[in-house]
Amino acid sequence: MTTVSSTPQPAMQLRELVFGAACAAAVRAAARLGVADALGEEPADVEELAAAVKAEPRPLRRLLRTLSCYGIFDETEDGRYIHTDMSRLLRDDAPNSLRYISLWCTEPWTWDAWPRLDEAVRSGSSVFQDLYGKEFFDYLHQDAPESAQVFNRAMTTSSRQSAEDLAELLDLTGVSSVADIGGGQGHVLASLLEKHPALRGTLLDLPRVVENADPRLRDGGPLAARATILPGDCRREIPVQADMYIIKNILEWDDDSTRSTLRNVVAAARPGARVLVIENLVDDSPSMKFTTAMDLLLLLNVGGAKHSKESLVSRMTEAGLRVGDIRPVNAYLHAFDSTVAD
After folding, report:
1. pTM for the complete prediction?
2. Which of these, 159, 214, 229, 272, is most buried using a 10 Å CB contact count?
3. Distance, CA of 131 to CA of 39 (rounded, Å)
4. What is the model's pLDDT at position 5?
């Protein structure tokens, strides 16, 4: 009697991988339709779900069958559907929702860019200018406002989640002031100020970013008296002194931007000031499949790259930083603790 192994063979694995776009598209469809939000704690049949999300039952069943193969939703013996740990992450109200991350990684422009990865590998540069006639962020804000909104929501969700992890991790003994460089809306800074009542902080980012800073930091917010919001471009100048500088997930642009940002921090800081760099790594990480995929996406859209531990230490040392402790913040991020050389 012939038996079929439950472990996919190489040919089957490769077939599944090359159809990976179908899985990504299915996740995107479920997120846009709001299927996870429509499904409650009790099993639901396809007709109920279809009515709730305004879809046709038969194709919705096909979508759910595909997602169930990957552990996103599950089908009961009587043909109804229930949540799994992954499908719950697609709910808008989930504490660590990945709905907007899922949408961001599958935005319409991504489907134009991925097929040209071989061109980016040959040239070593972004394909975005050739595709759309302008740089990535110009396109996003001028031509794709819905995609820009998805980006903002995805970054906000991700930043809030990692900010809490970072606040728990950091020992701020001897630190009375912190500067969050390129800190987006300031979720990291707000979490640190909440945890350390004597701490003062500065948020530096582009004007259009900081104008939407975390309400806790803005005038009238509970942390406003200890927070300074400073519009600026860290690649040009960092006009702030602090005991500690935090640089999180912004050293993945082109090398010139990375080097100028680190040089500007060193130029602004007092000797001995701490500089904490937080990044995703393409090595030594349990999230390498995700991080290496993001690394390729950065190549396509902005010509950037995620770092290895070695490449980041090299850039920091070159800028005049003494790198000390390196440790994980969570499954996705590592913190590089350094000081400005005397």
Report:
1. 0.89
2. 214
3. 39
4. 61
What's CA 272's distance to the chain center, in Å?
30
Per-residue confidence (pLDDT) for residue 1, from 0 to 100 = 45
Instruction: For residues 164 and 168, give the distance between their C-alpha atoms in angstroms, rounded to a whole number.
Output: 6
**Sheet containing 244-248, strands listed edge to edge, beginning at the edge strand earlier in sequence:** 227-231, 200-205, 177-181, 244-248, 274-279, 334-340, 321-328
Q: Given this model, what pLDDT does residue 253 score?
A: 81
The H-assigned helical ranges of the chain are 10-18, 20-33, 35-38, 46-53, 57-69, 85-88, 99-104, 108-113, 117-123, 128-132, 136-143, 145-169, 187-195, 207-210, 255-268, 288-301, 309-319
Which residues, including other chains, have CB under 8 Å from residue 71's CB and lie 6 or more apart? 84, 85, 86
Res 64: pLDDT: 98
CB 248 within 8 A of CB 264: no
Buried b (16+ CB within 10 A) or exposed e, 5-15: eeeeeeeeeee
Residue with tokens 């969700």: 157
Q: Are 113 and 300 in contact (CB under 8 A)?
A: yes
CA atoms within a 13 Å half-sphere pointing along the CA-CB vector of 121: 7
Q: How far is CA 131 from CA 36, 182, 323, in A?
A: 34, 28, 40
Residues of the chain with pLDDT under 70: 1-6
Q: Give the C-alpha separation, 197 to 118, whole Å.
A: 51
> What's the confidence (pLDDT) of residue 262?
97
The pLDDT tens digits for 5-33 are 667 799 999 999 999 999 999 999 999 99
The C-alpha atoms of residue 167 and residue 242 are separated, in whole angstroms, by 17
Bridge-based pairing state of the strands 321-328 and 274-279: unpaired
Characterize the bridge pairing of strands 227-231 and 81-82.
Answer: unpaired
Residue type at position 30: A
